[in-house]
Amino acid sequence: MNTQLLDKFEEVLEPLGNHSVEFFLAASLYHAQKISFKRAAELAGLSFEDFQFRLKEHFNTGYILFKETVNDDIQNSDTFIAAS
Prior knowledge:
67% of the residues lie in helices and 0% in strands.
């Protein structure tokens, strides 16, 4: 798939730095729970730490703890404890 940005987007994204299109697309997919944090960082062309920094810079948060993930972790912990 080959995409082309409208001029209006280029005007907004240019001051946000190199690869801002890739960053915001990856961040959007991460926020929509379509891809993992690690995959989003890869798609943005950033290290794990740099992606986290840019998320904090633009969205005031680095990681997002989704309710489903927390519930899965609690269930896995309960299962582990019960098996011990």
